[in-house]
Amino acid sequence: MESQGARPTRHFHHVQFRLGRRAARVDERGGATARQPAPDASVRRRGVVRPQAMNVTRQTITDYLVSQCGVDAADVNEDTLLFSTGVLDSFALVDLIVFLEGASGRRFKPTDVNLENLDSIKQMLSFLAL
User: Fold this and answer.
1) Per CATH, which fold does 58-129 belong to?
2) CA–CA distance, 101 with 109 (Å, rounded to integer)
């Protein structure tokens, strides 16, 4: 239990944990009371700000490919096959999915990640328009 001046402790499955001074408090109804407001939905758990959902366009995807994947803008058009031809690899695919999810505000299902949906900018735009 708690003694005056000591940090509060809680028991969990027969193990005692000491809570820090900044630990969230729990109100009588069982909900946590935050000392700070909840983070905005655009903030990831690790503190990295995620872009707000926006209209994904050919230009936003091209800009991303140029700035983050090192693709030359002159070599890429709407119909360029990015993965089938080796322009991008599987590591770039993961980063691209994270970007598209953040930019579109949409979560991809594992079955959505395939060449039919993501091999070219045109295919990405068609998939995101669904």
Assistant:
1) 1.10.1200
2) 11
Phi, psi angle pair for 101, to nearest 5°: -65, -45
Token couple for 128: 């995101």
CA distance 96 to 79: 17
Query: According to the 3-state scheme, what is the secondary structure of the chain?
Result: CCCCCCCCEEEECCEEEECCCCCCEECCCCCEECCCCCCCCCECCCCCECCCCCCCCHHHHHHHHHHHHCCCHHHCCCCCCCCCCCCCCHHHHHHHHHHHHHHHCCCCCHHHCCHHHHCCHHHHHHHHHC
Q: For the full predicted model, state whether its pTM sits above 0.70.
A: no
**Residue 98 above 50 pLDDT?**
yes
Instruction: Domain ranges for the chain, please list them.
Output: 58-129
pLDDT digits (tens, 9 = 90+) for 22-63: 555 554 555 555 454 554 554 444 444 444 556 889 999 999
